[in-house]
Amino acid sequence: MSPINAPALGLATLSLVLSQATIASPDARSPANRALTAAEDHDARMGWWREARFGLFIHWGLYAIPAGEWGEGTDYAEWIMNSAHIPVEQYEPFVKQFNPVKFDADDWVRMAKDAGMKYIVITSKHHDGFCLFDSALTEYDVMSTPFARDILKELSEACERGGIRMCWYHSIMDWHHPDYLPRRGWESRSAEGADYDRYVEYLRGQVTELLTNYGDIGVMWFDGQWEGTWTHEYGQPLYDLCRQLQPEVIVNDRVDKGRKGHSGVVDDKYAGDFGTPEQHIPATGLPGVDWETCMTMNRHWGYNKNDDAWKSTEDLIRKLVDIASKNGNFLLNVGPKADGTFPEPCVTRLREIGKWMKVNGEAIYGTSASPFSELPFNGRCTVKGGDQTTTLYLHAFDWPSDGALDVHGIGNDCRRAYLLADREEDLPVMRRGTGVRIVVPPDAPDAICSVVALEITGRPVVYDAPQIVSASEVFVRPLSVELQTPSDELEIRYTLDGTDPNEGSALYDKPITLTDTTLIKARSFHNGRAVSEAAEATFSRVTPHPDVARPEGGLRPGLRCEVFEGDWNELPQFADLQPSTVETVRTIELPGGPAVEYVGRRFRGYLRVPRDDAYLFALTSDDGSRLFIDGVEVIDNDGLHGAEERRGVVPLAVGFHRIKVEYFNKTGGAELRLRFAPVGRELIDIPEQMLMQER
Ligand code: FHN
Questions:
Q1: Which residues of 37-53 are buried (b: 16+ CB within 10 A; e: fewer)?
Q2: CB-ligand 1 contact for 294 (6 Å cutoff)
Q3: Which residues 6+ apart lie within 8 Å of 448 measured at CB?
């Protein structure tokens, strides 16, 4: 098929809007005659991992024996020792019960491989301190169990046979080792004589065993780094040790202290080769860094016999596609049972994912992020290729009913298009507006995700529609709106009357000030020709919420803060609980000192607002939180997560407004911060003098 010609733009122009799709060569090595730079070394080590894109996480250990149950509790898993307050001496007897007679390493590797997974990360030691491998440094390991076989040795050999990379999860935090600090708040075990440096030597010794006795290891996946005792002064040397033992090994960001909660961004002042967002997919990936989302198939990492909240195969496949379209890896977890088998729902899902990967794996392996900021269909795009030619993999979650799959703003010549499910059959491709239209068959090749490959000349040249940027979509006072495009060689033309911009529309040259509700439409132009679709956004002028009547008794400085104790995975109904203490606070934040676990706080009072305006609030918390103004929820930042920020806007009249902040922390790090500002102004912590409570 002859290439479908790009719009009549000179070749020189095609280079002007290069996409963000950086297609990292899987083998970026420098000429043999010089040392690799740090970036080249990183690229070289990450090559197989970027190619792999999909791995199996395995959380297995003594906790599979209680399988989530202890006393009245049924919602535990790998944290059961800590969450159920099981003292070491009551937990250790599980060692004599651990006998996974049905464990078959080749079977596990086959299931992972058949699912299309390229690496396995297994818990060599989780927080409970029990080792699934034969360690010379402790008796608290699998060799002390009735099973008495080195599970990691068997698994690493099976991986070698199966062509899957073997990788180790290893917890820095250790609730068993007498030298690990801090002790759990609930336990009576004395910390007398505990020597943390001696524990670090033990930790380093076991890492040495893991990187010496089991062949080539792909990844060291550290965890449990968040407690104050672990510092950068320990983290960097541990990273260095891994690299000395196996120079090609990859180490995640949890070896050190640079991780930002579950959003997992690697801060380059700290050690770590990739970021590790957990249980969620960052909205735009983590641009500029390698990253991997790890996720459970149900709600627990370790086996819980009562947890039937399984994600569907459709959901898991679409998550894999979404992650790959953002340049990430997907580490999908299984918590095996105490007998050594995978729960049946996991087996089924792995098999079904594998069926999809068999047809469409090339649209995942070794691909890079989509060059499009958005797509005109419900789906994703992944990219593979280089200077001469690129394949855009268009993943359609919903199949077009009109037989047409459109791609907007593509500046390249298109060579051919075809279904991965039927590669021999070329699909008709035609230029249409600023992009191309691919004529597809009426029936979707796959009910979950059908992939159309579009081969183009050179690297992707994508003309994104302009970004319409403002501090808020609602406003009380005049609002400034900016129009942005990735290349200053493109012009932006816009309208304020809802019509589509054309070559005669207003040329954007400075921020637009709105004084009334307006629909803005904007389009990219080059040499007088429209090269993108039109972006649009509506900005609404709103009436501020009136101030509320003050209580008869009047107001006084500060907020009422109730403190609750409990073990939650999400915000409880505080109104149904009795607070353990009630105090007056002057700001909405946590008290100083070490993070307090298993705690909830409810702040209530009045916010004095200086003038009519739309106010932007930013609420950061670890774990969950919510903000209410005048009884209306403005921000929902609930859930178990690291320090994450959510924002919301509310129009308020001058005067007093009721404010309520709810917060909880389960375990690990803790954070709470509320900032605010009139939209368009710099966010600040709410000044004390603006917070009042009933006398
Ligand atoms: O506390 C662990 C948890 O048990 C699990 O291992 C996850 C998996 O990444 N990591 C920690 C929580 O972030």
A1: eeeebbbbbbbbbbebb
A2: yes
A3: 313, 314, 317, 318, 356, 397
Based on the fold, state whether residues 190 and 121 are members of the same structural domain: yes
**Average pLDDT, rounded, for the chain:** 93
Contacts for 178 with CB less than 8 Å, ≥ 6 apart: 193, 194
Give the tens place of pLDDT for each residue, 261-298: 666 666 778 999 999 999 999 988 888 889 999 999 99
Averaged pLDDT, 563-569: 92
Beta-carbon count within 10 A of 366 CB: 19
> Relative to the CA of 78, which ligand 1 atom is closest?
4
Q: Which of 59, 80, 301 to mutate to test the pocket of ligand 1 (most atoms within 8 A of CB)?
A: 301
Q: Is the pLDDT of residue 350 over 50?
A: yes
Ligand 1 touching residue 223 (CB < 6 A): yes
- What distance in Å separates the CA atoms of residue 55 and residue 132, rounded to the nearest whole number? 20
pLDDT of 252 strictly over 80: yes
My answer on whether 688 and 602 are in the same domain is yes
Q: Is the CB of 615 under 6 A from ligand 1?
A: no
**Are residues 434 and 409 in contact, defined by beta-carbon separation less than 8 angstroms?**
yes
Let me know whether 198 and 272 are in one domain. yes
Tens digit of pLDDT for each residue in 405-439?
999 999 899 999 999 999 999 999 999 988 999 99
Q: Domain of 512?
A: 467-541
pLDDT value for 262:
62
Last residue of a domain, one of 511, 541, 571: 541
636-676 pLDDT tens trace: 999 988 889 999 999 999 999 999 999 999 987 899 999 99
Same domain flag for 155 and 263: yes
Residue 347, class by beta-carbon neighbours within 10 Å (0-12 exposed, 13-18 middle, 19+ buried)?
middle
Which atom of ligand 1 approaches the CA of 126 most closely?
6
- CB-ligand 1 contact for 547 (6 Å cutoff): no
